[in-house]
Amino acid sequence: MRPTLLIPALLVFTVPVGAQSWQEYSYPDYSFRISFPADPQSETTAYRVTDDRTVEAHVYAVRSDNAEFKMTVADLANTGLDENAVIDHAVKALSEGGEVKVNIPHRINRVFGRQLSIVEGDGSRAAVALFDYNGRLYQVEAKSLPTGNDATADAIRFVQSLIFNGGGSNRSAEQIQASRVACNGAGGTAAVSGAAGSDDARRFEIRCRRQQAFFALVSSLNAGDLPGAQQAYSSLNELQDNAQGRFANPNRPLAQALNQIGQSLQSGDLTGAQQTLSSLRVGRRGPRQP
């Protein structure tokens, strides 16, 4: 069968300054929900999954004067493509002409993928998450454009708002258990054996995601990536709040350091956040997860 001719260009909806009103939009046919600052424009287009192959994709996008928000769902069914190959090609395409500051594992519940922070050639900064799941590539990206009006907070909000429906996974039970063991550390397997949906399993899930966010924060600070660090801190702070309050036991040196890093990041002081991280390392053999 000859491939269908698809529309190559993406039309985006422009949001006037001050007119943004965030709402969650549900796409049950594609098993996800995500929040946009305005009604997104939808488009069927071609998505390049290898250097010489394209597939059909559905794109939902909004553009404001200082940011772009885009969710792409590409059909991978019957392509026979390996997950790593698909993700690696997406990273290559997204970072062309720019620089990847952070590229680390990411997950939303039991769906595993990659998280990126990219500085593009025109000065834009992109927060990205990629998932190969249910025969589709999910690519969520938000750009803070170099207009002088920082949209980092909105970019972080958009990427973090993605939720997959149905409770499925792109990993086998054995792979999930192995990741939990790695996340839990040697000898601590109580939560691994907890039944799905139990309080122990939920607490463990938060702990594992918290560890991911912590390592993303350290990686971003080491890379000198302010938006990436802000995004990681926001995720970490939210997970702490959802667990046992913000950075349980605030008198601990690590909790105090993290709060100081958060204050520096909020004011855009990357150097101050890096210095706090360095002092934390000097005082310990290595930073531990909160």
Topology, please?
Layout: E1 13-15, E2 23-27, E3 32-36, E4 41-50, E5 53-64, E6 67-75, H1 83-94, E7 99-108, E8 111-119, E9 125-133, E10 136-144, H2 152-160, E11 163-164, H3 173-184, H4 199-223, H5 226-244, H6 253-266, H7 270-283
Parallel strand pairs: 1-5
Antiparallel strand pairs: 2-3, 3-11, 4-5, 5-6, 6-10, 7-8, 8-9, 9-10
Helix pairs in contact: 2-5, 4-5, 5-6, 6-7
Polypeptide structure, described:
The structure is a single chain. This protein is α+β, with helices and mostly antiparallel strands. The protein has two domains: 13-164, Protein Transport Mog1p, Chain A (3-Layer(aba) Sandwich), CATH 3.40.1000.10; 173-283, no CATH class. The chain is built from seven helices and eleven strands. The strands form two sheets. Strands 1, 4, 5, 6, 7, 8, 9 and 10 form an eight-stranded mixed beta sheet that branches. Strands 2-3-11 form a three-stranded antiparallel beta sheet. Strand 8 (111-119) and strand 9 form a beta hairpin. Helix 5 packs across helix 6 (253-266). It is globular and about 55 Å long.
